[in-house]
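Subgroup meeting minutes
Present: P.N., E.W., G.H.
Scribe: E.W.

1. P.N. recapped why we're keeping a running log of single-chain structure predictions: easier to compare across weeks, and new members can see raw inputs and outputs side by side.
2. G.H. added today's entry (628 aa).
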Amino acid sequence: MNEKTRKNVLTAMGIITLHAVHAIGPMEVDSLIQLNSVVVSANRIEVSRNSVPLTISVIDRDKIENSSESALLPVLSEQVPGLFVTEKGITGFGISTGAAGSINIRGVGSGNKVLVLFDGQPQWAGLFGHSLPDTYVASDVEKVEVIRGPGSLLYGSNAMGGVINIITRRHHQAGRHTQARVMYGSYNTQKYMVHNGYNIGDFSSFVSINHDRTDGHRPNSKFHITNGFANLGYRFSDSYKISGDISLAKYKFQNPGQISAPISDNKMDVLRGTTSLGLENNHKKVRGAIRLFYNWGNHKINDGYYSGESPKDYLFRSDDHNWGIQLYESFRLFPGNNLTVGVDYKNWGGHAWNDMNDGSKQEIIDKSVNETAGYAVLQQDFFEKFGINAGLRYEHNSAFGGEWVPQAGITARPWEGTAWKASVSKGFRSPNIRELYMFMPKNPDLKPENMVNYEISFDQTLLDGRLSAELALFYIDGKDMIRVAQINGKPKNVNTGEFTNKGVEAEINYQITENLSFHTNYSFLHQSNPIAGAPKHKFYAGTNYSPGRFTFNLAVQSIFGLYTDEACTKSEDYTVMNAKVSYRFGQAPGKGMKLFVKGENLTATRYAINDGFPMPKATVMGGVDIEF
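Output recorded in log:
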C-alpha cells in the first residue's frame, strides 16, 4: 500500500470513528441486519437465513435509498463482500466493445457466470448471454439477495458463480405514496426519477420512470437512458394472489475507446424489455407459484473505426429473447421439514445480421436453445439447533444434453444468535449462442463449464441483534472452462480451462444507536488463473449518522490486486472516498422534502477498472427529493 493510499484510508477511518463515538441514545434495530432475516433465494420460499447453509447477503431498501444511486450494481459492489462490478464512467455501463458492468463473485463471473434475477426469474441477453446492468434500476428495488456461490440447484445455467436476486418494489401500505428526485452534477450529469405506489383493498400498484444522461468525463462518451417500470398485484384471498410487471429501457451511448486507441462513431442504440406474470398459492402446509417470463432486446450498433481506417459500411443489428415458465411447490410434511419441488423451461436465442449501407442484409445467426429442468430441495431442522439441506437438479439442454447438479449442507445453531454452516455445491454455465454458433471461434460441440464450491461460514449476533458479524471461507474447483485455442491454425472455442479459487470474506454490521450505524466488509481472493475484474483484496467501510434532520453518509473503499486487462498484465491498487449530506424538511413519515449533495472519489484518485478507460476524478452531484 503506497503512502498516499495509506493516508486516504487512515483519514476515512478516523472520520468514521469520530462519528461512532459521538452519540449514544435509544436503540432501534433494523430487522434486516439480524442473523435470522428472511430470504427467498435459497429455497424459493421464505426461510430464515440462518436455516440454510448457503452464504447470502441481504441489501435492504434503506441502504439502496441512502446511496442516491440510479443504478443498482454500484451499491452491491460496495455492500457485498466478494462481489465486484467493473465501471468506466460517471454513469452507464454500455454493451459490446469497451463495455463495463461485468460482475464477479469470488473470482467467477465475467461473461455470464453470475445470474441476475428479477423476483426469481432469469435476466440475460439471449444471444450473448451477458447480464443487462443498465436495466437494473435502484428505485425499482425493495431488496437484493446475493448468493455468494453457486445457485445452479434452483436456477440452472449461468448461476455458476453466484446469484443476484433483485426483489422488485411493491406498495404495501394503504393509500398512495409518490416520490420524485432531481439531481445535477459534474460533466452535465442529470438524473430524474419519479415513482408512485398505490394500494386499495386487495389491489396494489407501483410505477416508476427514471431518466439519466451525461456528457461523460471523456470526449465522445455521452450516455442517456430512460427506464420505465410497472408492477400490479391483486390478492384474491389469503391463499391466492396474482402479480405482473413490465420493465422497459431505451438507451443510447458512445464508446470513446481506450486512451491509447480512441475510436470514432462507436455508437449503440438499445431497447430492452422484460415482463412476467405469476400466480402464487399459500396454504398452511403447501405454498408455491407458477410464473411466466419474457425478456427481449433490440440492438443497433455502429462498430466504429480507428484512426487511419474507413467508417464501417454496415450496422450490426440483433433481436434476442429469453422466455420461460417456472412451476414450484413447497410442502411442510412434518415439523421442521420443508420439501420444494419444481420444473423449469427456458428458451433463449435470437437473430443477428448486418444492415449494409447499400440496403442489403448480411445474415449472421438465427438460432435458439431450450432447457428443461426438474429439481427437488429438502430442508430439515432438528430441535431448532441443527439443520440439513440437500437437493438435486437435472437440466437438459438442446445443444449439449443433460447436466446433474447436486448440493448439500448443514447448519448448527448451538445457542441463540449463532449459526455455523458448511456446504458443497455445484455450479455450471451453458455455452451461449455466440460461443456455439457465431463468428470464427464458434464450436457447436461445446459442453458446459462447471465448478464445485466448498465453504464454511460463521454468523454471530450480539447486543440484542444490534451487532452482527459473518466470516466465510471458500474453496472453488473449476473445470471445462471455455477458452479459445488454435486448432489446425484456426481459433476455436474448446473446453480446456481449469482453475482453483480460495479466499476469505468478512462482514460486520453495527447499529450503534438509533441514529448511527456502521458497516464494513473485507474479502481476500487467491486465484490459480487470475481474471480481469476480480480484485485480490477488497475493503469497504461506511457509516450513516442522522442527528435530527441532517443525515451524513461517509464511505471508503480500497481495492488491491485488480487486473484491468484480459491478459492480466496490468493491475491497479486504489482507494476512493465517497460522502453524502442531506437535510430533510417536514416531520411526517413518508412526506416532505430533502436536499442533498454527494461526492464520489473525493480524493481525486487516478485509477482505471477497465484498461485504457480512466475513471473520473472527484465528482459532485446535488439534488432534491420530494415525497408526498
